[in-house]
Specification:
Leucine-rich repeat, LRR (right-handed beta-alpha superhelix); 6-stranded mixed β-sheet; 17% strand; Phosphorylase Kinase, domain 1; alpha/beta; disordered C terminus; 13-stranded mixed β-sheet; 666 residues
Amino acid sequence: MVVLRKTSLLVFFLFLLLLLESTFEQQTSSLDEKSALLLLRSSLGLRSRDWPVKGNPCLNWNGIKCDQNGRVTKINISGFRRTRIGNQNPEFSVGSLVNLTRLASFNASRFYLPGPIPALFGSSLLTLEVLDLSSCSITGTIPESLTRLSHLKVLDLSKNAINGDIPLSLTSLQNLSILDLSSNSVFGSIPANIGALSKLQRLNLSRNTLTSSIPPSLGDLSVLIDLDLSFNGMSGSVPSDLKGLRNLQTLVIAGNRLSGSLPPDLFSLLSKLQIIDFRGSGFIGALPSRLWSLPELKFLDISGNHFSDMLPNTTVSFDSTVSMLNISGNMFYGNLTLLLTRFQVVDLSENYFEGKVPDFVPTRASLSNNCLQGPEKQRKLSDCTLFYSKKGLTFNNFGQHEEKKSSKTSWLSHTKIVILAAVGGSILLMLILIVLPITVSFCVRRRNRSSTSNHPRGRHNGVGPLPPDETLPSRGGVSINFGSLGSSFTYQQLLNATKEFSDSNLIKKGQSGDLFKGVLENGVQIVVKRISLESTKNNEAYLTELDFFSRFAHPRIIPFVGKSLESATHKFLVYKYMLNRDLPSSLFYKSNSLVDNGLRSLDWITRLKIALGVAEGLAYLHHDCSPSVVHRYEKPFLLLFFYFQDTISSSLILSLPMFTKGYSSK
């Protein structure tokens, strides 16, 4: 009995010792990780308002997430600012990250990190699942060490100055779901075995200098949703293997040096496609017939190619609330068909369509430089006749058909016309000689009588030009470049970001839409405008706003992040969130204290910078945009701030909530 009691006590003390040791190790690890974070704070020059020295990193530091044991798992410094001292000599100095052995996510997007990517990301941070270094001013090449991150799911290196090839070993990252290398200087070819990334859902290699052909193995990415290879120097034809991308929703290969015609079966299995952008890619021939019957298609831009085909005369029953078609700058011909009823915004300019314009053609259609009967600014008769003759067809001569006659009949008719013209001309000349003097005499006498009367000056008698405000509405077309409209979000993504558009996230209700604050999965803060299509005015306004942001961008205009157009009843526009609220919130702030080198109120120097910023923004809208944008909502609450800077150019952003035709905000 005594032995048993001693044994129990011994076991209890051993358990207590192990528990204390485990607790000590956790505390030691937490202290080591806090020390690592303090070193990171110092090396990057972060401000105390974001990472206070005396606070608990897991509880009080912005962008830090920890597990239940207090170990750091996520770091998000996206959009953070350095202190003034940190700005004096900024470096990509993140060596202390090696002590964060459970780090799963590192997001430094839009934080200035000049220099190459350190090798430690691949050699030491083997638990990383998310690495977002977009818009960080990174240089150098993509390090081979990144290929050791076997758990990596998201790799975003977009909008930097990275050069060199895409490492072939990058395809060993079997868990990768998002790969974004866009807007860099990457050259060479796309790895031939890119299809090995079996879990890849989004691939963006746009705006680089890739010069290879499109690898057929891309067709093996069966779960791929978005593919963007636009604005490179790729050559060759589109491989028919791409028909294997059964889940693809966005296909953008615009602005390359491709050639040949599209494979006839390219779209045979791509039933989920919503956005297709092939503009300016050098394609020829006819379009695959399956293209016109894609059930989810909402945007099609094949402008600036050499497609030559007739539109099929078919109707479809699919939703057309947001469908947009741009086939301008090709060689389409024939009559306008019922197919156009599917699309809401249409650009058919710079083709060879003939005949009358049917009533079912959308009112926003652009029809210039065709061979149509009725609209202005059409091609010359000789150009249309030549084009149709090369096709073995007869042009309808703008609706003025001529009967074919024998050469003898034609000669006789010509002789009759000459004789009749001579006789008619002589009679007309005699009438002019007789009537003209009488008419002149009558007008002179009437003028003299009128000069003695007392009619009031300036009376409008209904004859002559209309006043300026009585002009007739013009019929114009809108071609929206979706390739420059940021990301395409799903409705579910925006639901998650805004907590299902809860009242706690509501910023403001407006006539053109309700504004909600949100946070994306990568930690980026956004503002989502939810627009109801129940109002015809809203339906017009959001399309014009999309058109504006596809054409114009300026540091004084709120950055457009993306859109979600999949819903039939609501549309969603996504903007960058401005941290320092609007002008009245800062203008009437009473405190004059300085905290962490940031201005808490508006001194007179800052107010001068704001005035200059407003002037720059309005000058751009009024004078640099074509057509000019007249923004009539210059109210203080529409002027938003990201942060203040002690430079001539403040970070004032002009918020443009609504546009109408002609880009005149009412």
